[in-house]
Specification:
With about 180 residues, the chain is of the alpha+beta class. The chain has six helices and seven strands.
Length: about 180
């Protein structure tokens, strides 16, 4: 059982620790740069879910919000594409420091992110993953939509989607359609 942790949103002062976590969790060609994280944190730090243990960030889920229904590579590089009122929560990374893997920390953050996306009235959550992780995301209700158009890091990615429903999503959709 995991205990003794804190979940919080990111702040700009987390930049170095976030960039370092990314480096140890992803191959160099897949990892976001420190500058990319600076841009993301400057615009949508509230879409970074951090799990701290003993004062250090050991797990993170991060992404942006958009009306685009599919995750495409430009989103990784252009933080200006974020739309706080968007329908879809995109996830760029789910990472846990190797010393803390397989202890449930990523699952805690994924569940928190899903809970937040529901409460914000998002239509759903979209991410891409490698083939060996499809079964992991299915445990949270994500559905495999097949091979993504993404060429990020010269890897084959599979797009996964979690459709959210319920009063929050439905209320937000009605409010948006009433505006049009």
């Amino acid at each position: 059982m995991v205990e003794g942790y804190v979940i919080r949103q990111a702040e700009i002062h987390d930049l170095d620790e976030i960039a370092n976590l990314e480096k140890v969790c992803f191959l160099e060609e897949e990892a976001a740069s420190k500058m990319a994280f600076f841009d993301r944190l400057s615009i949508y730090a509230n879409h970074f879910w951090l799990l701290e243990k003993d004062g250090h960030i050991i797990s993170m889920v991060n992404g942006m919000v958009t009306d685009d229904k599919d995750l495409h590579d430009e989103m990784y590089h252009n933080a200006e594409l974020h739309n706080e009122q968007g329908k879809w929560q995109m996830i760029f990374g789910v990472e846990t420091h190797p010393e803390y893997e397989n202890q449930g920390y990523a699952a805690i953050l994924i569940n928190k992110m899903i809970e937040d996306a529901k409460s914000q009235g998002r239509r759903g959550v979209v991410l891409t993953c490698k083939k060996h992780l499809i079964h992991y995301y299915k445990k949270f209700g994500f559905e495999n939509e097949g091979i993504s158009a993404s060429e990020h890091g010269a890897v084959v990615w599979y797009q996964m989607r979690l459709k959210l429903s319920g009063k929050y999503s439905n209320m937000r959709e009605k409010a948006l359609s009433d505006k049009e």
